[in-house]
Amino acid sequence: MEEIIKLIDKYKVGKILIDEPLKKYNTYKIGGIAKCIVFPKNEEKLKILLKLIKENNIKYKVLGKGSNVIFSSKPFEGIIIKLDEFDKLILEDTVVTVGAGYSLMKLALEMTKKGLSGLEFATGIPGSVGGSIYMNAGAYNSDMGYIVSEIKAIDPNLNIVTLYNAELDFHYRTSFLQTHKDYICIEAKLVLKHGDKKEMMEIVEDRKRRRLMTQPLEYPSAGSVFRNPTNIPAGKLIEDAGLKGKTIGGAMVSKKHANFIINYDKATSEDIYNLVNYIKDEIKKQTGVELKQEQEYVNWE
Length: 301
Ligand SMILES: Cc1cc2nc3c(=O)[nH]c(=O)nc-3n(C[C@H](O)[C@H](O)[C@H](O)COP(=O)(O)OP(=O)(O)OC[C@H]3O[C@@H](n4cnc5c(N)ncnc54)[C@H](O)[C@@H]3O)c2cc1C
Description:
single chain; alpha+beta; Uridine Diphospho-n-acetylenolpyruvylglucosamine Reductase, domain 2; Uridine Diphospho-n-acetylenolpyruvylglucosamine Reductase, domain 3; Uridine Diphospho-n-acetylenolpyruvylglucosamine Reductase, domain 1; 3 domains; 5-stranded antiparallel beta sheet; 4-stranded mixed beta sheet; 8 helices; 18 strands; about 30% helix; globular; binds flavin-adenine dinucleotide
């Protein structure tokens, strides 16, 4: 690793952090130490980084805002790639070209304030544009699949390719990127519509109020833990099973929203892991339903 880090530095790929606590980079505020985090400056530098990683068979993970991941407490013996420098924003009439590292929440608010409609659902989703396309993040019967017309990505052969909406295979909380983990989204084109600014702002304010009332935003979490089964919200199943307030170590099933696990008191990765499994087992036992996780385990293998 030391040799590779020297080369990343030599090629001026971008900022490098060594032995950095991962808890600073995810919304649960958990995890071990990352051996190396790199912030590539642009496409060319990202390609150089990926070439080095592939030639040397190094483990890597692209990380957005870390709002949908559960890191283990083990050291991450590889390279975390952060696309924070991929933050361009170009607006042409109703078409937005935006970098994968851009904050989705910020983008959604900026567009809503300009009277451009389509992203109102995203004003409460604390992810990056890239991570939100990977997840097909959504709320209020809308999601990224409705507005993303195409993305620019780096494919496994390190070519820059354009993938169009139909190829991105958007479905409930999944996309082509989730089934093709060796593609990295670097930029996206979103198509919005002109809307009534005042009405849109009212919708956003109303949803903000609702989120504050129904979600435990005062604690670290990563949003919904489980995908909703077809006929019933996962939160309802968990609440009906009497699991609200269940704690393991410093992790708790939120009393406000049963599909959220909160880090209420210095939870470890293992506390969260054990609570996820406890909920799964209880729901299976009580209802026969097998809950599927929305959040992704990273570095547990
Ligand atoms: C309080 C709270 C509320 C939330 N509410 C919602 C909600 O209403 N709806 C919803 O859908 N989600 C919600 N979430 C979950 C989360 O915000 C979304 O899933 C978000 O889209 C994840 O984006 P991220 O950048 O944080 O991804 P990360 O957690 O950083 O990464 C998730 C996955 O995406 C991959 N990835 C990240 N960037 C790229 C890229 N550029 N190219 C390829 N792969 C990439 C990562 O490798 C990882 O596998 C909520 C989370 C919190 C904490």
